Every structure is written in structure tokens, then in C-alpha cells.
Amino acid sequence: MNYLILFLSLLPIYLIGYYYYNKDTVKEPKSLLKKLFFSGILAGIVVIVVSLVWLIFFPKLLEVNKLNNIELIFYCFCFIALIEELVKWLMIYKISYNSKYFDQYYDIILYSVFVGLGFACFENVIYVLGSEQALQTAILRSLTAIPGHACFQTMMGYFLGNSKFKLHGSFKKNLILSVIVPTILHGIYDYLLLSNNLLFLIIYFIFLISLFIITIIKIKQSVKYDKERIDPNICPRCNSYIEFNYCPTCGYKKN
Questions:
Q1: Per-residue model confidence as pLDDT tens digits over 197-227
Q2: 234 domain-assigned
Q3: Which of these, 25, 96, 98, lies nearest to 252 by C-alpha position?
């Protein structure tokens, strides 16, 4: 095993996770984040099993290069995007949506991203170590696929946060959008990449950069919302009154 290649495969996952973790004003339990990360790896395994079942009914999907445009759309949006995003969504919702630690808007974005990073970790090791051009694949995926998963899960967390805090529409509407929006974005990502069209490839990079920008905006919005919502003199963890920048009940310290 080439440990340099493995290191390059895992480094962007750590850096992105570190970036999202540092944006959290009230740090979440690392045990919960680890659980979410490993559930993302589990999601990767589940996706493989589900995909193999799909291939029994749609064996033609094994030959991606021979698919016509309609079949490629089905492949990208249903076979890849819908399955992956739905499985990740189930992990996020089951583990963290009703968690006692989910008390801030940004929390669910962080939870979602850690599931996405776990999934990306599993996927990246398979792609990179199974590639004949492992180094190039590791570098390319560190700039595209891995941050792409973080972006999809940021949008998923954004709508889950809306549903939790009753923002921008009904609970049901935001819950549905938390699956549909990441699925559409993921489908577009794959379709542009797999179309083998120079124009679509150019559009792909424009789409990816736009997705990065929108993701950063959503992160800033969620952090700002949390800061404006919380009384600085009330502990965000246990709702006790904070004295001298320190919560006497749970030990939380103000920044």
C-alpha cells in the first residue's frame, strides 16, 4: 500500500472537517461527530448493496459509456444521486435530528457534513486505491468530489435546520427539500462530469465554483442566525444564566 496516496486521500477530509468544526460556536461532542462520520462510511456500504440490487433490474447501467442521454440522466439523478443522498439523509435524521445536542441551527449542518465526509472517505479510498493513476485521482478528487459531498450535505443540513427551527416554509416542505435539493445538485454534478462534452465540462467547473460560494454563504447565514438568536447571558447548552463568562451549571465558557 502506498501510504502517501492514502494520506493524500484522507487529508482533504480532515481539513474540511476541521474547517466546519471550527465554525461551530458551541462545540458538539466529538463522540457524536465520530458516530456520524462512521455512519457515513456505513452509508457507503449500504449504497453499494442497494446499487447491486438495482443492477439486477437495470444491468445496462454497468456500461455508462454506452448510455444515451435519457439513460445517463436516469443513471446520474436516480441511480447515483438519489440513492446516495437518501441513504445519507436517513443516517443524519436517525442519529442527530432529535439529539439533545441539536440546539443550534448550524449543528445540523455540521452533523450532515460529517456523515458526508465519512461517505466521501469510504468512496475516496475505493476510487483512489483502485485506480491505475492513484496520485492524479487523489489530487483531483480532493478538489472536486470530497468538497462536493460537503456542499451537498451543507444544503441538506440547511433545510433540515429550516424544518427544525420553522424557517422559510413548513416543516414538511423543508424536510422534503433536504432530500430533493442535494439530490438535484448531486445529479447535475455527475451528469456534467459524465457527459463527455467539452462545453459541459466547462459548465461543470462553473457549477462547482458556484456551489462552493453558495455553501460558504449558507454556513455564514446559519452561524449568524445562531448568534442573533441566543441571548449572550443565557447558556446555549443548558439555558442557565451565565455569570462572569462561565456557566455554573454545565461549565460552558463564552468566547
A1: 999 999 999 999 999 999 999 999 998 888 7
A2: no
A3: 25
